[in-house]
Amino acid sequence: MSLLKIEDLYASIGDEKILNGLSLQINAGETHAIMGPNGSGKSTLSYVLSGREDYDVSKGSVFLDSKEILDIEADERSRLGLFLAFQYPIELPGVTGMTFLRTIINSSRVAKNLPELEGIELVKLIREKAAELEISQDMLKRFVNVGFSGGEKKRFEILQMALLDPKIAVLDETDSGLDVDALRIVGKGVTNLKSKDRGMLVITHYQRLLDHIIPDFVHIMVKGKIIQSGGPDLAKLVEKEGYKSFLNGN
Amino acid sequence: MEINSPPSNEVLDFCNSFKKSFKEHGWPNSKIETWKMTPLQKFIKDSSSLKHNSKYLLSNNKNKFIKNVDINNLESLNSKYFQKNEMSRVILSHISNAFEILVPKNTSKKETIDIKSSIDAGIWSSSLIIIKVPENVECNIALEFSLSSNSLCTPLIAIDVGKGSNLSFSLSVINSSKSLNASNFVSLIEGDLSENSNLEMVLTQQGVTLSRSDININLNQNYSNYDLIGVYFGREKQHQDITTCVNHLAENTSSNQIIRGILDDNSVGVYQGGVKVAPNAQKTDGRQMSRALLLSNLAESNSKPELEIFADDVSCAHGATIGELDKDQFFYLLSRGVSHSVARELLIKAYLNEVVEEIQNDYLSDQLEKAIDFWLSEFKMKEVA
Question: Domain locations in chain B?
């Protein structure tokens, strides 16, 4: 069953056209990777999917679990089951990790008609998921992303994903700013979240992340659209030969 | 327990002597530099129809610390400070209550004195409060003014902190019911600090039509320190003004003034922050920082830092920013399924948390948090509506 269906999507920011007729379908249980050179529109795709307002979508449609979401606001999209792990997670000075996680968990639970979690139950849930990602209690007491290392920021993104349990997770350059050890922890965290009910879209520049999060499908994105699709071997080809051959062919 | 301290005949006679001057000059007007951004005539239209009355309640049994105002203290304060400020003639010529808070000497116990004053509709509460903190003691004092519609409150507060003492002082202005009209608060505060003394002050203003606090602090002797956290909240057409002047008059004195404003709807915020360093006040460290957060396109914030430095070995810093909620932070929260109203509330609270964190004294941070929660609860009601 298709969890995410992008059809002929065109998007621009100001006068700059960034997405030029992109189509992609992700079924439940599948992990797709989008690779592409700088400026190919990878991050724009993630922002357009998550509902950032700065972009104009001139054509196309996006269905999340059969529901057209382009006219729906970002918060509602998230509550419908879409999650974006940010390439550059935003700092929230004055908001502690615990307060933030409690707020997002309960926003999602209220949307699902579940009672809000408080006290020990909430703390237990957060601690359990945090431990899997080697996130310390001390980190949860700090202000969100303020003074976090690159690895801490990305682990905190994956923790949010684990707690929100989305239908579709979009991971935007999750490997950027990570050293080898952090990459291993994040890769393991994401892999643990693979499920037959969930689809994942891993956006990356390099093949190295795909050694940790093995994709079912790999797509090459150039100038705002997918120009070639294949299996994991395609990522290895990119690693070996770069994007040059794809660019020449386009 | 009510503070029952009508001014003595001597004090009344003294105060009455200002009546003529009030008749002649009236309220401070916009021709005076420090009143340009807060035109009182726009807010206080007919004060003559209000009845004069001031009620103060002590929430804990500290009446032994309350004394009648000594005329000598009043005369001396007047010649030193009050007469320099136009508001003092307005306040003194309409006075209906006057008392001194005398913190006991030679005590190692940290006294806490909570005083509340409600100003009902149709009332003008004009009063004089003299706070005297002796040498080498620590003390917490909180004053809360709760205003109704069609009321006026004009307290004149003089604070004296003795050598080696610490006073944590909170002044809060709140609204007695959700939406008020013609409720005006204009205060004048004068502070004197002696050697090695410390005055930590939290000022919060919200909910009333007009609120203006004039705070003048004199760091008279070496190693005295003054810290101010001032937070104002504006909504509807409210006008919030915090005007300060810190006089560094001796060596190694320090001051830090942190102002935060939150302005919604058509409200206006004003911060005028003065730091004056006398020629002999070497090694002064004077800082002020004001930030205003605008929640509406129609809200307005005016900030005017003023530094006058006559000594050459000092460190002074000032800064002012005016901004909106951060778009990236807002989107980050939305992308996690947090609704617009909850995201706004969380970010506003975060913006204020940063100043709560600055406060070392739990008593003062509690006072500030109480004021923040009060404002947020009304803000949430508005968002839901």
Answer: 9-325
- The whole-angstrom distance between A137's CA and the closest CA on chain B is 20
Written as six digits, the tokens of B170 are 């909170």
Q: Which amino acid is at B209?
A: T
User: What are the φ/ψ torsions at residue B144 (nearest 5 degrees)?
Assistant: -125, 130
Domain at A242, CATH number: 3.40.50.300
Q: Which residues of A touch B346 (CB under 8 A)?
A: 95, 99-100, 103
Residues 6+ apart with CB under 8 A from A158: A85, A133, A174, A186, A189, A190, A193
Q: What is the pLDDT along chain A (250 residues), one digit of tens a residue?
A: 799 999 999 999 999 999 999 999 999 999 999 999 888 999 999 999 999 999 999 999 999 999 999 999 999 999 999 999 999 999 999 999 999 999 999 999 998 899 999 899 999 999 999 999 999 999 999 999 999 999 999 999 999 999 999 999 999 999 888 888 889 989 999 999 999 999 999 999 888 888 889 999 999 999 999 999 999 999 888 888 888 878 765 5
Whether residues A93 and B350 touch (CB distance < 8 A) is answered with: yes
Write down the pLDDT at residue B256: 97
Per CB-CB distance under 8 Å, the chain B contacts of A52 are: 331, 335
- Tally Cβ neighbours within 10 Å of residue B232: 28
In chain B, residues with a C-beta closer than 8 Å to the C-beta of A51 are: 334-335
The residue of chain B nearest to residue A89, with distances taken between CA atoms, is: B332
| Preferred mutation among B333, B340, B341, B348 to probe A, highest tally of A CBs within 10 A | B333
- Residues 6+ positions from B320 with CB-CB distance below 8 Å: B271, B289, B290, B291, B303, B305
Report the chain A residue with the minimal C-alpha distance to residue B340. Answer: A75
The reply to whether the predicted model has a pTM over 0.90 is no
The shortest C-alpha distance from B321 to chain A (Å) reads 17
Q: Which residues pair with B202 in a beta bridge?
A: B170, B229
Instruction: Determine the residue among A77, A84, A103, A160 to mutate to test chain B binding: the one whose Cβ has the most chain B Cβ atoms within 10 Å.
Output: A103
ipTM for the complex shown: 0.96
A95 closest CB neighbour out of B328, B337, B346: B346
Q: Which residues lie across from B171 on neighbouring strands?
A: B143, B203
* pLDDT at residue B384 in the model: 67
To the nearest whole Å, the CA of B336 is away from the closest chain A CA by 6
Task: Determine the structural domain holding residue A24 and report its residue range.
Answer: 2-249
DSSP B181: S
Which of B337, B346, B350 is the closest to A164 by Cβ? B337
User: What's phi and psi for A55, nearest 5 deg?
Assistant: -105, 145
Give me the residue from B331, B339, B354 closest to A107, CB to CB. Answer: B339
CA atoms within 13 A on the CB side of B142: 21
| Number of domains, chain A | 1
Q: Which residues 200-239 of A have a C-beta within 8 angstroms of B?
A: none
- Which B residues 335-364 touch A at CB under 8 Å? 335-340, 342-343, 346-347, 349-354
The string of DSSP letters for B45-71 reads --GGGSEE----EESSS-GGGEEEPPH
